[in-house]
Design a protein that fits this description.
Elements lengths: L2 H23 L4 E2 L4 H10 L7 E6 L5 E6 L12 H12 L6 E6 L2 E3 L2 E3 L2 E4 L8 H13 L4 E2 L3 E4 L32 E8 L6 E7 L6 E2 L4 E4 L10 E3 L6 E4 L6 E7 L4 H15 L8 E2 L7 E7 L3 H11 L2 H16 L5 H15 L24 H12 L2 E2 L2 E2 L8 H5 L7 E8 L2 E9 L5 E9 L1 H9 L10 H24 L1
Parallel strand pairs: 1-3, 6-8, 7-9, 9-17, 13-15
Antiparallel strand pairs: 2-3, 2-23, 4-7, 4-18, 5-6, 10-11, 10-16, 11-12, 14-15, 19-20, 21-22, 22-23
């Protein structure tokens, strides 16, 4: 080859590399016309209006958009918004991050007595359990502490205490608990009941579930629900500062149910620890709230697994408390101090604005870190830009997409090979599926599907009753059709590309 041709060839190569680099640097914007015929058929088949759905199919390597339908219209993302929280948390906290819960003491031990105080301090661990708490009892036994002369305190100052994630949710659903820096068992309790013979009254108990055996929970009470309330209201808090659950006389003769812990998660964790200590012959006073002093010594520290393992669990099981605590801890680390939930969510939005400055963030709003809100708004294009950012985010020896689980239809059908990894989201009249797929031709693509029926959602919110826990048959049918459409659209993309 002549020198002139060699120089010319190198010039074309440099030009090509510069174009590829430009495609990687810019947000999703290069698109071709949507394959409307397939989507139109699916909308008709599953009885949705054109305005109900926004979707986007893109190549994460270069940002090229293959299909798009109303990609810039804002929708309710439901739990797909957890992806937004978790990608940011992995970047802010790092993949080696572990949540810590500590037992601290002051004073000295003499003849089985601690002449000082004990502090149980939380660090925002979303996975802390009753079984983990037993380790702290063993730590006291190892140094022969059987009683104390001072106080026993719980320290939940690491994060602001929040009574519930979203007030616009039914009061008795376990997915909407209170939040605390010292949470336990996802802040859920197990209520068991049995009718007294020949009486409408109950014999009831509240326990903390654990692999080592359920532990009775003190500090909570139970009562009868007023008879004049609707029979569709099985459980209700009586509105006091402590959790006191009221039970309907129309409940079955016996049963059990998971209920949220709302009023004082840190206090309940401390009471549970006191019960476990008493079972081992260790006498602690009634716990009180206090911040551990700087001079307190760490007697024992429990550390969670590393963040990627916890994130994978949140993506699979969609636990709201976990997403909220992870998000709040990430923002605490970013800012250096804890923030209330709404402010914490706003700071995370600002972090994305700075991290992805070319994305159009107009209208993007987060009420919290879990997506449990009818006020949160994301567009498909905004979500796609975030997914593309997470596409190459290192997570140990892998990348973020590998933390996403297969959708329910792949798990149910026992697929030998995973071709879709995605996060779903579900609220009444709002549903979504976002993630990555591998086509029959071996291409790896990202996708976002968000459905929202705003008129029906608005009507539901206007008549919202916090006491009613069940979705209406119409809302459940809407969700079933939404999920069927999502599966059909993803399946078509896999085959077509």
């Amino acid at each position: 080859m002549s020198l002139a041709l060699t120089i010319k060839a190198r010039g074309w190569a440099l030009l090509l590399l510069s174009i590829v680099g430009l495609l990687v640097a810019v947000p999703l914007s290069f698109s071709q016309p949507t394959s409307a015929s397939v989507l139109d058929r699916l909308l008709s088949q599953y009885e949705f209006a054109d305005a109900d759905i926004g979707s986007l199919l893109f190549d994460p390597t270069n940002g090229y958009i293959l299909e798009a339908h109303r990609p810039d219209e804002l929708r309710i993302p439901a739990s797909t918004s957890k992806v937004v929280t978790l990608i940011a948390a992995l970047q802010i906290l790092g993949t080696d991050y572990r949540f810590a819960t500590s037992l601290l003491i002051t004073g000295e031990v003499n003849a089985g007595t601690l002449h000082g105080d004990i502090y149980l301090r939380g660090g925002g661990d979303p996975t802390f359990t009753t079984d983990d708490l037993r380790e702290f009892v063993s730590a006291l036994r190892r140094v022969d502490i059987k009683r104390i002369t001072g106080r026993f305190a719980f320290d939940e100052s690491f994060l602001p205490a929040t009574r519930e994630i979203n007030a616009q949710q039914p009061i008795a659903v376990s997915y909407n608990p209170g939040l605390s820096g010292l949470s336990i068992n996802y802040n859920r309790i197990l209520l068991r009941w049995k009718h007294k013979p020949r009486s409408p009254a109950f014999i009831a108990s509240v326990v903390s579930p654990a692999e080592g055996g359920a532990v009775p929970l003190e500090g909570m009470s139970i009562g009868p629900l007023p008879r004049d309330l609707d029979h569709h209201i099985p459980f209700l808090l009586d509105g006091t500062t402590m959790d006191r659950w009221l039970l309907s006389s129309t409940l079955p003769a016996q049963g059990q149910v998971e209920l949220p812990l709302k009023a004082a998660p840190g206090r309940i964790t401390a009471i549970l620890f006191r019960t476990l200590c008493r079972q081992q012959g260790i006498d602690l006073p009634i716990p009180q709230s206090a911040t551990a002093p700087a001079g307190a010594r760490v007697l024992y520290m429990h550390q969670s697994e590393t963040l990627p393992g916890i994130v994978a669990g949140v993506l699979r099981y969609s636990n709201n408390l976990s997403a909220e605590l992870i998000g709040q801890v990430a923002i605490r680390t970013l800012r250096g101090h804890p923030l209330p939930l709404l402010e914490s969510a706003a700071v995370l939005t600002d972090w994305y604005r700075q991290t992805l400055p070319h994305t159009d963030w107009n209208g993007f709003f987060r009420a919290n870190h879990s997506g449990l809100s009818n006020a949160t708004r994301h567009s498909p294009r905004q979500m796609a830009d975030i997914l593309r950012y997470g596409w190459t985010l290192p997570v140990g020896k892998s990348t973020f997409p590998q933390l996403l689980p297969p959708p329910h239809w792949e798990r149910e059908d026992n697929h030998s090979a995973t071709v879709v990894r995605a996060k779903s989201g579900t609220m009444d009249y709002a549903d979504g599926l976002i993630g990555f797929l591998t086509t029959t031709q071996g291409r790896q693509l990202g996708f976002v599907i968000l459905l929202t029926d705003f008129p029906r959602r608005a009507a539901l919110d206007a008549n919202f009753d916090v006491r009613v826990t069940e979705s209406s048959p119409a809302a459940r049918a809407w969700t079933e059709r939404a999920k069927a459409l999502e599966q059909a659209l993803v399946t078509d993309w896999i085959a077509q590309y």
